[in-house]
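User: Quick sanity check before I run a bigger batch. Here is a single chain. Can you write out its predicted 3D structure?
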Amino acid sequence: MGKVRLVDLSQPFGDKCPLWPYFADVKIERIHYHAKSGVLSQVITTTMHCTTHADSPAHVFEGGMFTDEIPLEKYYGTGVVVDIPKGKWEVITPEDLEQARPKIEKDDIVIVHTGWYKKYSDSVDYFCYSPGLYKEAGQWFVEKGVKAVGVDQQALDHPLGTAIAPHGPGPLRPDICEEYKRETGREVKEDFPYWEPCHNLLLRNGIMGWENVGGELDQVVGMRVTIAGFPIRWEKGDGSIVRLVAIVDEGDQ
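Assistant: Done. Predicted structure follows.
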């Protein structure tokens, strides 16, 4: 590899960053600051499942690998950034993935660009109305044998396949479920009967996943690049905020 360009695919982290609907707020306190101590030191209280982050298998099922147990190779390799534009509540299908270009191959890291990351904010629009993957897409990824999947939305699953809807500890947002019924004439569970099936299919089969992909994602849409997004070496960790990067070989451009 000759000259390379690094493209940041991460959303920023900090005080008041957007959070999934049932997470406690991020707290950042200065214990030393320049006027007081001549140095700056801060204490951060946060969930690791905010901004651009990786889910570990232990996050989803008992007996799954913790963050420190996952080989680093799972978070690094050749990848494709595929453009699959989607609107409110639309599902990313196996047909979408099959037709995407560059063609998704075995052992690829796949970053799915829907354009939704541009809505990243503390908003119903971003967290509750997003498109997303569901069971059939998860099955397709497993059958294809990809290495990892990243999405520019709130989660590896469609929001109506999460606790926002009547799954697990949900519904966190009964009003969203009612809105879906008004717009479609169907109950959420008629169309989304399973709780986080894509999470489970990927992570139970050793396929890692990143959520809230963003940053300069538009710069690498439709390209085959090298992807790197490493978690911290957290013992018994259930996930980790990451700095996700696309490495572009300028000699290929």
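The mean pLDDT is 97.

User: Great, the batch can go ahead then.
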